[in-house]
Design a protein that fits this description.
Elements lengths: L4 E5 L6 H8 L4 E5 L7 H4 L4 H11 L4 E4 L2 H15 L7 E3 L4 E6 L6 H8 L2 H14 L3 E8 L6 H14 L7 E8 L6 H21 L7 E5 L4 H10 L2 E4 L8 H9 L6 E5 L12 E3 L4 H12 L1
Parallel strand pairs: 1-2, 2-3, 3-5, 6-7, 6-9, 7-8, 9-10, 10-11
Antiparallel strand pairs: 4-5
Helix pairs in contact: 3-4, 6-9, 7-8, 7-11
Length: 298
């Protein structure tokens, strides 16, 4: 209806703001991109008609939001180089409306995470996990099944840690939780198999009757068990190959109410621009992951 406000979410719907404006010019439309916007040199690889349609589709909005300043600047440069529209203080004036482009880093509900981390139900879950993990240093990996998350990279980094640092064998456990995603899609099914084969290889190579180096779970975790594992893990290993923000990194920190724990974070995640105290790594280098794990555990 006239004067309604519509909020459009993510890259699947990049064409929608313009379509809405053509249908209802008085509609107020906001758009938020949850993934990185690529640099001009990458974006220009798209066929001309596609890149024009995507940019013009987004410029149908009244407000455009991105996770980081870098992504915002990438978008503005692409609009200038491809469509010829200049901006003034993040505003682009078009014939029938003004578009405001700005940076809105996504956060978490810190108070909820922090308080729930010490709730009785979370403490009960933590006590149950402690029965299995007692005496071990723990590294945590939690992500949905997706090729962008770098799950295979972190497994290879952990394998290299055990190969090159025998003193960690029998003392460190990688808790790997992979959340099901896009079940039935061939590429995702293939990646799941690759992860499970690599977990099996590491456990077969280094494991013993009393110690399995990788504890692997392919399932969704509800809030209390998730926060319990956050609280038990000495290190969180977050290594996306590309990520708009990454809230797991923020949740891990928020859950550490005793102010302990070390975060290893990919420089390819938007969160790395905010969480500079983490150990920042390039996830494409498994040796860098292994060295970061050693530093974090020490």
């Amino acid at each position: 209806e006239p004067d309604d406000i519509v909020w459009v979410q993510d890259y699947h719907l990049m064409l929608l703001p313009r379509l809405l404006r053509e249908r209802s010019p008085n509609l107020l439309t906001g758009f938020f991109l949850h993934i990185p916007f690529p640099s001009f040199e990458i974006f220009r690889l798209l066929p001309p008609r596609w890149r024009h349609d995507i940019l013009e589709g987004l410029l149908g909005a009244d407000l455009l939001g991105f996770h980081t300043y870098e992504y915002t600047q990438h978008f503005l440069q692409s609009v200038l180089r491809i469509l010829g529209h200049e901006h003034h203080m993040g505003q682009i004036t078009l014939p029938n409306h003004v578009v405001k482009i700005d940076t809105f880093p996504m956060g978490i509900d810190f108070q909820r995470i922090s308080k729930t981390s010490t709730a009785l139900e979370t403490e009960h879950e933590r006590a149950e996990f402690q029965k299995t993990l007692s005496g071990f240093r723990t590294v945590l990996s939690v992500d949905r099944l997706d090729y962008s998350k770098g799950i295979l990279n972190r497994l290879e980094g952990f394998e290299l840690l055990l190969e090159s640092n025998p003193e960690f064998r029998g003392h460190v456990v990688l808790i790997m939780v992979v959340v099901p995603s896009r079940i039935g899609v061939l590429q995702y099914d293939l990646m799941k198999r690759q992860i499970e084969e690599l977990v099996g290889r590491i456990n077969g190579k280094f494991g013993s009757i009393s110690w399995m180096p990788v504890l692997y779970q392919y399932r969704h975790l509800s809030l209390h068990p998730l926060l319990a594992i956050y609280g038990l893990s000495d290190v969180a290993l977050v290594t996306p190959l590309r990520d708009g923000m990454n809230l797991i990194a923020k949740e891990y920190i928020a859950s550490r109410t005793d102010m302990t724990g070390v975060l290893i974070l990919s420089e390819m995640a938007g969160a790395s621009k905010e969480l500079g105290e983490a150990i920042i790594i390039n996830p494409n280098d498994r040796r860098e992951i292994a060295n970061a794990l050693k530093e974090a555990l020490q």
